[in-house]
């Protein structure tokens, strides 16, 4: 069992609850719906042997899904000091980021629709995932850029991670991205933009010194 994975019955409840919350919304999902989906006897209070309330199911489900982003954070930190070319590294990271967003699909739908009603959970998402990923990505860019470049890489990371998240969101809504740009083309475009930015820092430092 993964160190982050709850015991089997709790994990099944969380998985099905987050799926239903993501599909139907928190308010529209009944405890009986979760019990049915998780294979528990309906109306017998089975869910309350594991959780005190539907809100507690949501809170633990959000915390559980947030652990999925930790692998992406670790990969960014490891890649910053690796010898991989920037283009190959970025392409791999964008693919990994989209896969992470797929794995967190229920949570992402909740963020857009329901979590404003749960400010403490929204703050968890802000601190543990959104702010963290931009800080780690910004450090990645700074590590890959030329010595002496003082560009605001956290702001650059915010732009690029926002583009990745928006691509995923529209693809989730429309099934395929409405632009018709499939994932390989999108990944190549982001990789090209980042490679160009990093090359620009090298040229700028070589020709004119630090910005």
Give the helices and strands, then pairings.
Blueprint: H1 8-24, H2 31-38, H3 54-66, H4 70-80, H5 86-103, H6 105-113, H7 119-144, H8 153-174, H9 183-208
Helix pairs in contact: 1-2, 1-3, 1-6, 3-7, 4-5, 4-7, 5-9, 7-8
Q: Separation of termini?
A: 50 Å
Q: Spans with pLDDT under 50 lasting ≥5 residues?
A: 204-211
Biggest sheet details: none
SSE order = HHHHHHHHH
Counting H and I runs of at least 4 residues, what is the number of helices?
A: 9
Query: Any idea what the radius of gyration is?
Result: 20 Å
The structural class is: mainly alpha
How many strand segments? Answer: 0
Proportion of residues in β-strands: under 5%
Mean pLDDT: 86
**Helix proportion range:** over 70%
Shape: elongated
Protein architecture, described:
Helices cover 71% and strands 0% of the residues. By secondary structure, it is mostly helical. Helix 1 crosses helix 3 (54-66), helix 4 (70-80) runs antiparallel to helix 5 (86-103) and helix 7 packs across helix 8 (153-174). The longest helix is centred in the middle third of the chain and has 26 residues, at 119-144. The radius of gyration is 20 Å and the shape is elongated.
Primary descriptors:
211 residues; mainly alpha; elongated
Summary, kept brief:
71% of the residues lie in helices and 0% in strands. By secondary structure, it is mostly helical.
